[in-house]
Amino acid sequence: MFAWRGIAVSFSIFVILYSTLSLAVLSVWRRLRFSDRQYSARCSADLLFVLRMVPFVVAAGVTLALAVPSFLLLEPRSVDEPMGAVPVVLGFCGMAVLLVGMCKAATALVRASRTIAQWSSEARVIASSPIDFSPVDFSAINSISVSPSDSVAVLRISAAAPPLTAAGILRPRVWLSGAAEFVLTERELQTALRHEVVHVRRRDNLRKLILRSVAFPGMAELESAWREASEMAADDAAVSSASEALDLAAAVIKLSRLTPLQAPADLTTALVHSPAESVNARVERLIAWTERRQTLAPQYSWGYALCAAVAVVATLAVTYSELLARVHAATEWLVR
Question: How would DSSP label each residue in 263-314?
């Protein structure tokens, strides 16, 4: 009975915090989303992803660091007190949230693996451009360099596959259809490939998998905003001049006309997959490209995050005993 009570209380705390913080995040985002033009696309994408993850991370952290230890250390094991219906229901809700997220993530992985296996049966490596943002000879190389130790292969696939997309998490690759290669000029193809490699560098497919694993009702709109911002962030990082921006805009237009716009495959980042309104916004943004946008890109510093983490750990170390007592008092009220 002690173990079951502890499980019910822990999951109850988790789902209460997760639900409350999720509602707070949605409220804040809906009030502030119209002012996001002052931020770069990269900053907006990172901010939206962090904002989406905050409820889960905080709820899981409080549950594991405070709720579980307080119950194990302060709850008498010899007392066989009855447990009300509220913690039981909330506990099942908390378990359901985690199980649904795990199932969605597992399903997405299986579907992505099947899709990639289907593409691989007819794919072959072709010449491509290194991600050094300079003109190159396409026939001289066979992969896109991402770092000194990694490279991203570009493979040609059948016309049934998306025109241009990045797929894979552990070993990401860029997949290019023969039709897309035919309609794009060399400059357009190079900028389009850069766009996809930026998705690989930013681990956007891994972020999609993480979002699937923390699924929660009502978050679809926020996740859609993150996907659109990540596309614009990849657009910005793929071009360094007005001419390259026009090349990428032309590639987006051509590929959007090549196939009907449809939902992307699981855990992939296609160059064109969004609704028509989003594609039009990207094209207009690329046509209006300026160097000022690049200079305004934020320079992140891990020093601030490290200082904040040290401050949080120090605060917890000083007040941990008192926090455990307060959390245990709250869980006692919840059980009764």
Answer: PPPTTEEESS-S-HHHHHHHHHHHHT--HHHHHT-----HHHHHHHHHHHHH
The number of beta carbons lying within 10 Å of the beta carbon of residue 118 is 14
For 282-330, what is each residue's pLDDT tens digit? 888 888 887 655 555 555 556 777 788 788 888 878 888 888 888 888 8
194 and 272 in contact (C-beta within 8 Å)?
no
pTM of the model: 0.83
What is the rounded distance in angstroms from the CA atom of residue 209 to the CA atom of residue 122?
Answer: 26
Which residues in the chain belong to E strands, given as ranges?
124-125, 143-147, 150-157, 164-167, 173-177, 268-270
CB 54 within 8 A of CB 21: yes
CA distance 88 to 315: 32
CA separation for the pair 236, 144 (Å, rounded): 18
Q: How confident is the model at residue 145 (pLDDT cuts 50, 70, 90)?
A: very low
- In terms of phi and psi (left: phi > 0; alpha: psi -120 to 50; beta: otherwise), the region of 126 is beta
Whole-number Å distance between alpha carbons of 282 and 124: 30
Identify which of 323, 294, 195, 332 has the alpha carbon closest to the alpha carbon of residue 250.
Answer: 195
**118-127, 220-229, 270-279: which has the highest mean pLDDT?**
220-229
SS3 (DSSP) at 173: strand
State the residue for tokens 């059948």. Answer: 158
- What span, in angstroms and rounded, lies between the C-alpha atoms of 38 and 26? 20
| Closest to 252 measured CA to CA, from 235, 237, 268, 267 | 235
251-265, 268-282, 309-323: which range is least confident on average? 251-265
DSSP state, 218?
T
How far is 76 from 101, CA to CA, in rounded Å?
A: 33
CA 44/CA 41 separation, integer angstroms = 5
